[in-house]
Design goal:
Blueprint lengths: L4 H15 L9 H8 L3 H13 L3 E4 L5 E4 L8 H8 L40 H17 L10 H12 L1
Antiparallel strand pairs: 1-2
Helix pairs in contact: 1-3, 1-4, 2-3, 2-6, 4-5
């Protein structure tokens, strides 16, 4: 399964916010975009969603910016991916309707208008890929942002190098 750039940039933004601000300093979207060499306009949409989801908070006014709203140990990677991935459909029979509104992954209903595969009612391949998707997300559920920050000093060095 390949994650979208949206999810990738969301993860990178959270990593940036976890390792760069020091002593209550706030970060800004320009710095994150520059550090990762990604589009500021695309990143703005992602940061907005991360704020709505409660992962980050923004401070308005002079000296304002953004920061993590939770401790990195409280940010579950699997949950984040469920929130940022719009399509878990790696097969047509597991298309973009494969995610419920509660973020859980489900099989597309047989006979759904978006599934035109004629063998879908009898095909067992979708069950195999469905289990693989569940296993993929289950592995991610076992990790928090804190787990990927164990080398925070090295991450900070690399981010600082790209900024300067």
């Amino acid at each position: 399964m390949k994650l979208t750039n949206y999810s990738d940039y969301a993860l990178r933004s959270l990593i940036y916010l976890a390792v760069t601000p020091k002593d209550g300093e706030l970060a800004n979207i320009d710095d994150i975009a520059q550090a990762y060499d990604i589009s500021k306009s695309h990143l703005t949409k992602i940061i907005h969603q991360l704020g709505k989801l409660g992962y980050i908070e923004s401070v308005r006014g002079k000296g304002g910016g953004i920061r993590l709203a939770k401790d990195p140990s409280e940010i579950n990677i699997g949950q984040l991916i469920r929130h940022t991935e719009s399509d878990f459909g790696i097969l047509q029979c597991l298309d973009d309707n494969s995610k419920n509104t509660d973020g859980k992954i489900s099989l597309v209903n047989i006979g759904d208008d978006t599934n035109s595969c004629i063998i879908s009612p009898a095909c067992r391949l979708k069950g195999v890929f469905y289990k693989a998707m569940l296993a993929f997300v289950a592995v991610l559920d076992g990790y928090t942002l804190a787990d990927v920050l164990v080398n925070d000093k090295e991450l900070l060095t690399l981010l600082d190098k790209n900024m300067g």
